[in-house]
Amino acid sequence: xxxxxxxxxxxxxxxxxxxxxxxxxxxxxxxxxxxxxxxxxxxxxxxxxxxxxxxxxxxxxxxxxxxxxxxxxxxxxxxxxxxxxxxxxxxxxxxxxxxxxxxxxxxxxxxxxxxxxxxxxxxxxxxxxxxxxxxxxxxxxxxxxxxxxxxxxxxxxxxxxxxxxxxxxxxxxxxxxxxxxxxxxxxxxxxxxxxxxxxxxxxxxxxxxxxxxxxxxxxxxxxxxxxxxxxxxxxxxxxxxxxxxxxxxxxxxxxxxxxxxxxxxxxxxxxxxxxxxxxxxxxxxxxxxxxxxxxxx
Length: 297
Prior knowledge:
Elements: E1 4-10, H1 14-27, E2 33-40, H2 47-53, E3 58-62, H3 67-76, E4 83-87, E5 91-93, H4 98-106, E6 111-120, E7 126-129, E8 159-160, E9 168-172, H5 173-179, H6 191-201, E10 205-216, H7 227-244, H8 247-271, H9 275-290
Parallel strand pairs: 1-2, 1-4, 2-3, 6-10
Antiparallel strand pairs: 4-9, 5-10, 6-7, 6-9, 8-10
């Protein structure tokens, strides 16, 4: 069995994906790995130029967009590595230190999955992820450790994290076989958060392991702060709470979320003359209570 399966999903992002795959090819020399890429219903068949550019990689094509979880799970069916490294197509490897994560997990079998240090591309040297705190019981709010601050070496120690970051997740096959694949009901956003809860329910630990660093160019697929993103975040926050909280806790959360959080955001969008964002919140709430999940129709 090979050490590592790199898994990534492309959606109308050929140039970005090529940059990412070039970084994989450059920095994984000496590692026994495979790379599996799904072109996830792009308008043009981008699997063709990807296969031409990277003939040694496994390039798959779906004629329809399967979403974040569905696309990664499709790749997962072809993967054979001891560890699975799920990388967004808008990420970049910086050096050959990915093997450090493999070695760390080999020495800590209690860890089901881990994430590296993640930095934004812009502003330069700005942290996006150094772990995530627990969610509050009522509001489901939590804190991204290091989020948005300069990297001054203050997050160099491996530590437990309550949740994974979907841009870069390394998963043990042993854990995966017990936990199962990513949940596909969300389509986009909250999948890795729900998956994190599943790992913990099965007795596995989640860790932040800053022995390698990944660069993330966020917002390439849906657009940063787009109405589509607002829709999925609204609907899926409710779905996550329903799937992972007791009936009583979900009821309290839903009252808080609908009457306070969503109402506040609606007022702000109306004041800022962003009617499409306001409509996205209403549509997300409506579709949750109507039981409409997966891709937005």
